[in-house]
């Protein structure tokens, strides 16, 4: 059975309207309709939210639909590559600022540090979404439920990014004098 038919059947089984599902996963009713008619396919993040709302595992939801499996594989690779590439570029940029601070005018160094801070914030926010959704899918698969705060992969990556940024700023400012 195709994904579109599975989505429609499951929604009807649990007696939800397209509007109710759309509201719960933060998309339009038309998007739900497009998924159920096979005009478009949901992305991985939407599938995770759908599986939560429909109380069905991702495996059962997508099993047998080769088109969605291929797309999810491509989406995951693309997201992974974007995230890794962003972090790599950011680290190269940080190294450049730290090593060239003595040779650059103070105004240019401050401007570069500002650009670095903004780009790290942007990468951090995109990385947050990526890692948070990835972690949610892992927790769902493993049925991990806890009321305590646990350190996540996102926390480690973001803390490392902040520490590196602070170190670069202090190193740069100290090397200018």
Automatic annotation (TrEMBL):
<keyword id="KW-1133">Transmembrane helix</keyword>
<dbReference type="Pfam" id="PF01381">
    <property type="entry name" value="HTH_3"/>
</dbReference>
<keyword id="KW-0472">Membrane</keyword>
<feature type="transmembrane region" description="Helical">
    <location>
        <begin position="110"/>
        <end position="131"/>
    </location>
</feature>
<protein>
    <recommendedName>
        <fullName>HTH cro/C1-type domain-containing protein</fullName>
    </recommendedName>
</protein>
<feature type="domain" description="HTH cro/C1-type">
    <location>
        <begin position="7"/>
        <end position="61"/>
    </location>
</feature>
<dbReference type="InterPro" id="IPR001387">
    <property type="entry name" value="Cro/C1-type_HTH"/>
</dbReference>
<keyword id="KW-0238">DNA-binding</keyword>
<keyword id="KW-0812">Transmembrane</keyword>
<dbReference type="GO" id="GO:0003677">
    <property type="term" value="F:DNA binding"/>
</dbReference>
<feature type="transmembrane region" description="Helical">
    <location>
        <begin position="152"/>
        <end position="174"/>
    </location>
</feature>
<feature type="transmembrane region" description="Helical">
    <location>
        <begin position="81"/>
        <end position="98"/>
    </location>
</feature>
<dbReference type="InterPro" id="IPR010982">
    <property type="entry name" value="Lambda_DNA-bd_dom_sf"/>
</dbReference>
């Amino acid at each position: 059975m195709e994904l579109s038919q599975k989505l429609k059947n499951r929604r009807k089984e649990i007696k939800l309207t397209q509007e109710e599902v759309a509201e719960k996963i933060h998309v339009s009713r038309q998007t739900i309709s497009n998924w159920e008619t096979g005009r478009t396919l949901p992305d991985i993040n939407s599938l995770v939210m759908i599986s939560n709302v429909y109380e069905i595992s991702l495996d059962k939801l997508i099993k047998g639909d080769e088109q969605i499996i291929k797309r999810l594989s491509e989406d995951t690779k693309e997201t992974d590559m974007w995230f890794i590439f962003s972090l790599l570029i950011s680290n190269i940029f940080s190294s450049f600022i730290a090593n060239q601070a003595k040779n650059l005018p103070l105004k240019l160094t401050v401007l570069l540090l500002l650009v670095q801070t903004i780009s790290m914030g942007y990468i951090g926010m995109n990385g947050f979404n990526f890692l948070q959704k990835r972690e949610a899918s892992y927790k769902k698969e493993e049925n991990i439920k806890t009321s305590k705060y646990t350190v996540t992969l996102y926390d480690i990556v973001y803390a490392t990014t902040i520490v590196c940024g602070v170190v670069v700023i202090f190193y740069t400012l100290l090397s200018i004098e």
